[in-house]
């Protein structure tokens, strides 16, 4: 079975994870943690088990040129590429962004005006395990105002689990 960070797809979340609700669990550690990531979460369904795993780094702060965050991104991208092949890469700044100077690189991420990501998906990568639909790696804004590195693994049953979660949410309205 597929188990990024030791979190097994198709099974219940690790018992060390705190459950926020009936479909989301999180922790500041994982059964097999990676040193670049500070928190882990998973989305799951009682019948299907874990269908999505997410890991996030601590925020990168005082890195206005984005050198430290891009180096961390490149290191993880290389590790994933060695295992899953070449990803689809996205690196662009929105047209008209005011955050276009080299010293404003982090701000362009924090204000969602720059996309810096890569994806491995089942339609373009022959090396992905059968249980996996997509892996995404990206830099994005953190809740504390810095920039964080996020990796997500979506299993083949993620769409089914997401539909069930959304249906349950709609039922309470």
Describe the structure.
It is a single chain. By secondary structure, the protein is α+β, with helices and mostly antiparallel strands. The protein has one domain (4-168). Helices cover 22% and strands 31% of the residues. It is built from three helices and eight strands. The protein has helices spanning 67-84, 105-110, 158-171, and strands at residues 18-19, 24-27, 39-45, 49-56, 88-93, 114-121, 132-141, 147-155. The protein has an eight-stranded antiparallel β-sheet with strand order 1-2-3-4-8-7-6-5, with helices on both faces. A hairpin with a 4-residue loop joins β1 and β2 (24-27). It is globular. The protein starts with 17 loop residues before the first strand and ends with a helix. 29% of the residues are buried. The model has no long low-confidence stretch (mean pLDDT 94).
Features:
173 residues; alpha+beta; eight-stranded antiparallel sheet; 3 helices; 22% helix; 31% strand; globular
User: What distance separates the N and C termini?
Assistant: 37 Å
Low-confidence stretches: none
* Oligomeric state of this protein: single chain
Strand content: 25-35%
Question: Major β-sheet, in short?
Answer: 8 strands, antiparallel
Averaged pLDDT, please?
Answer: 94
Walk across the major sheet and give the strand order.
Answer: 1-2-3-4-8-7-6-5
Global Rg: 17 Å
Tally of extended strands? 8
Percent helix: 10-25%
Shape: globular
Number of helices: 3
Helix/strand-derived category reads alpha+beta
The sequence of SSEs as H and E is EEEEHEHEEEH
Total domains, how many?
Answer: 1
